[in-house]
Amino acid sequence: IHTLWSLCKIVLHREYIPFIPLRCERPIGPLDEPTFPREKYDIPTGFWEESAEEIFKAAKEIMEIVSANSKRWVSSESPQVAFAIWTAAFVGVYSRKFPYMDTAGHMNGEVPTGDLRLGGETINDAANVAMKTLTEMSSRLKMASGWSKTTKRMLEYFTRIIEDYNRNSSTLDRKYSSRPLPGQRTLSLREGGSGGGLE
Questions:
Q1: What does the DSSP assignment read for 49-76?
Q2: What is the β-pairing status of strands 122-123 and 111-112?
């Protein structure tokens, strides 16, 4: 029940952060439609930061539950728990590639664990715990194997798009990237354009 509650918080709040926040320095809300411009909406101060923190905190809570059970050599390997771990792993990958979105460092902080299979008394970050747990579950749950591969692919995807964006945005004419001329197409984020990467 606790993992389901944390999973719900992640799913509800992740709609308010950009998928690829390359044009952000902190949580500022969605960059792709629907957006919430200040001139139309009364957004309370700190709302976007608090919303983003709910995501990372909930993912860490999932991994704390998994670590506490693992410490007692108890493993709940239901599809729902595996999905919660995969979601936490995805949030961890996001936090690792965009650490400024996890302002409190929930997914990159220390998680206590006594499970020697996961690395000893402490593990440096909850993201690492999530990915190792998925890998461990892969031999017993086929879906965990698929989620583990997907998590690794997302890490590679984020790495590549960051590299592409940095390379392309440094060589682009700023006028073209911010406002294309008539007849020119809008550039994708990977090409140095604007938005949050949902194109």
A1: HHHHHHHHHHHHHHHHHHHHHHHTT---
A2: antiparallel
Q: What is the DSSP letter of 145?
A: H
Nearest-10 Cα torsion for 143, 108, 132, 135: 30
> What are the residues whose beta carbons fall under 8 Å from the beta carbon of 186, sequence distance 6 or more?
180, 193
For the whole model, what pTM was predicted? Answer: 0.80
Q: How far apart are CA 50 and CA 40, in angstroms?
A: 20
**Separation CA 14–CA 57 (nearest Å):** 12
Asked if pLDDT for residue 178 goes beyond 60, the answer is no
**DSSP states along 81-109:** HHHHHHHHHHHHHHHHH-GGGSTT-TTTS
User: What per-residue confidence (pLDDT) applies to 94?
Assistant: 93
What is residue 69's predicted lDDT score, i.e. its pLDDT? 73
d(C-alpha 190, C-alpha 183), whole Å: 20
Q: Are 129 and 118 in contact (CB under 8 A)?
A: yes
Q: Which of 97, 102, 107 is nearest to 158 (CA)?
A: 97
Instruction: Note the pLDDT of residue 123.
Output: 45
What is the spatial distance between Cα 24 and Cα 30, in angstroms, rounded to a whole number? 10
